[in-house]
Design brief:
- It contains 16 helices and 2 strands.
- It is an all-alpha fold.
- The chain has one domain.
- A two-stranded antiparallel ribbon has the order 1-2.
- Helix 8 packs across helix 11.
- The protein is globular and about 50 Å long.
- Keywords: Cell inner membrane, Cell membrane, Membrane, Transmembrane, Transmembrane helix, Transport.
- It is found in: Cell inner membrane.
- InterPro entries: Sulf_transp_TsuA/YedE (IPR007272).
Length: 418
C-alpha cells in the first residue's frame, strides 16, 4: 500500500473509519448512555413542545443512524467523481432522489400531512446568491471534511476535527444570515422555478422528467467509469441476517431508499422537507444576541423567521432534527464499536476553520446545503436544486487543488478507497 493510499484512507471518508477485517464489539456503556440521553430529550419534548417535535427527534435519530451505518456521504461522493471518475456514490444519490420524488409528488400535490398543516417543498430562486453560495459550499465541504449532514454524523461518530468544522459552520451561517438581504435583494435572480407548477407539466410530468434526468446522470457516470477505470469502493465490515440492521455497514442503495423515506416522513410531519443549516443560523444568532447584538433588526430575522429567534431552540424543528441526527450517529458508531475521538492535525484544523466558514456562509446564500437545497430542492422539483448540484461540483473541482495545501489528500486513479 502506498503512502498516498494511506493518506486517502485518512482523509477521503466522511467520517474517517478504520479498515477492519471484523466488526468491533459494541460499546455497551456508550449505547446505554446514548439511549438515556435520547429518552430524557424525548420526554422533555413531549412535555414542553408539540407532538411534532417528539416525532421529529425520532426521525432525526433514524436519519443519523442511517447516515453513519452506510457511511452515506455527499462530500466524498462529489470528490470521488471529480477526482478519479468513481460514480458509485453519486448513483446512490440518484436512487435516493428517484424514491424521494416518487414519494414527494403525491404529498405535495394533495397536501398530505400527519398533523393537518400546510405542506410545501423547497423551491427557491435561481440567481447570483445561489451561484456564489453553492460554489462556496462545494469548496467548503472538501476543506471542512464534510457537508451539513456529514458534519453532524461525523460529530456523532467522534471525529474530533468535525467539532471545529461545526463551530465555524455556525459562525459562517450567522454571518451569512446578516449579509443575506444584500445577496437576495440587491443582486439579480429569477423567480423560483418548479418543474411541476411553473412549467405546466404538473407533478406527474415533473416526476417523469426527474426520473429521466436521474437515469441520464447515472448513465453518464457509468460512461465516465468505463473510460477512466477508477478504483471501486470496497465493502465495509458487516454482519449477516437481522443483526445487520443494528451492526455493520448497510449497502449504499439501501441507505438511499431509507433516507428518501425518512425525508418524506419529515415532509408529512412538519410540512417541509429535511433541512439542517437554518438551525446553525439560529444557534449563532442567539449567541450573539446574548452578547448584546441587535439580531432582531437583521433582515433575515424579519417576518416568518422572527418567531424562531424569540422561542426556545427546542421549538425549532430543524434543531430537533439535528440533535436527533447527532444522537443517531452516536448510537450507530457505538453499536459498531467505532466511537473514538480522533487526533487533530494543524492542517486539518486550519482547513476545517476555513471550510466551516465557507459551508455556513455558502449555505445561507444558496438557500440551503446538500440536504435542504440539493436533496430537498430536487425532491421538491425545484430547478435550484439541480443548479446547486452543478455549482457544488464545480467548487469541489477547485477544492481538489486546495486540499494538498492543508495536507489533505486527493484520490488518485491507482489509490484504493477506504
Amino acid at each position: 500500500m502506498t503512502t498516498t493510499t494511506v493518506q486517502a484512507q485518512a482523509n477521503t471518508k466522511e467520517p474517517v473509519q478504520k479498515q477492519q477485517s471484523a466488526l468491533n464489539k459494541p460499546q455497551t456503556p456508550l449505547i446505554i448512555g446514548g439511549l438515556l440521553v435520547g429518552a430524557v430529550l424525548l420526554i422533555y419534548l413531549m412535555f414542553t413542545q408539540s407532538a411534532v417535535q417528539s416525532l421529529l427527534l425520532v426521525i432525526g435519530l433514524l436519519l443519523g443512524y442511517t447516515l453513519f451505518h452506510a457511511r452515506f456521504g455527499f462530500t466524498s461522493a462529489f470528490r470521488r467523481l471529480m477526482s478519479v471518475g468513481n460514480g458509485q456514490a453519486l448513483r446512490a444519490h440518484m436512487v435516493m432522489l428517484a424514491v424521494a420524488v416518487t414519494l414527494f409528488a403525491p404529498i405535495l400535490a394533495f397536501g398530505y400531512s400527519f398533523f393537518g398543516g400546510e405542506v410545501s417543498g423547497y423551491v427557491s430562486p435561481v440567481g447570483v446568491s445561489l451561484f456564489v453560495g453553492a460554489f462556496m459550499f462545494g469548496i467548503g465541504m472538501q476543506l471542512g471534511g464534510g457537508c451539513a449532514s456529514g458534519t453532524l454524523y461525523a460529530v456523532g461518530g467522534g471525529r474530533s476535527v468535525m467539532f471545529i468544522t461545526l463551530l465555524f459552520f455556525i459562525v459562517g451561517s450567522t454571518i451569512g444570515a446578516y449579509h443575506l438581504p444584500f445577496w437576495t435583494e440587491d443582486l439579480p435572480a429569477f423567480e423560483p422555478i418548479s418543474l411541476a407548477t411553473s412549467t405546466g407539466l404538473g407533478y406527474g410530468g415533473a416526476w417523469i422528467l426527474s426520473i429521466a434526468l436521474f437515469g441520464l446522470i447515472s448513465w453518464i457516470t457509468l460512461r465516465v467509469e468505463k473510460k477512466k477505470q477508477p478504483p471501486k469502493m470496497p465493502p465495509l465490515p458487516s454482519t449477516k441476517g437481522w443483526k445487520r440492521i443494528f451492526r455493520g455497514s448497510w449497502p449504499l442503495f439501501a441507505a438511499a431508499i431509507a433516507l428518501a423515506v425518512l425525508n418524506a416522513l419529515t415532509l408529512m410531519t412538519r410540512g417541509a422537507p429535511w433541512g439542517v443549516t437554518s438551525a446553525f443560523a439560529l444557534w449563532g444568532s442567539k449567541v450573539v444576541q446574548f452578547f448584546g447584538v441587535d439580531v432582531a433588526s437583521w433582515g433575515y430575522w424579519q417576518g416568518a423567521n422572527a418567531s424562531a429567534l424569540e422561542s426556545s431552540i427546542f421549538a425549532d424543528s430543524t434543531t430537533v432534527l439535528n440533535f436527533g441526527v447527532i444522537l443517531g450517529a452516536f448510537l450507530a458508531s457505538a453499536a459498531g464499536g467505532l466511537f473514538k475521538f480522533t487526533k487533530l492535525r494543524l492542517g486539518n484544523v486550519v482547513a476545517s476553520i476555513i471550510g466551516g466558514l465557507l459551508l455556513g456562509y455558502g449555505a445561507r446564500l444558496a438557500f440551503g446545503c446538500n440536504i435542504g437545497a440539493y436533496f430537498g430542492g430536487i425532491s421538491s422539483f425545484s430547478l435550484h436544486g439541480y443548479v446547486w448540484g452543478i455549482l457544488a461540483l464545480a467548487g469541489t473541482f477547485v477544492a481538489l487543488f486546495l486540499r494538498p495545501l492543508f495536507g489533505l489528500s486527493v484520490p488518485k486513479p491507482k489509490d484504493t478507497f477506504c
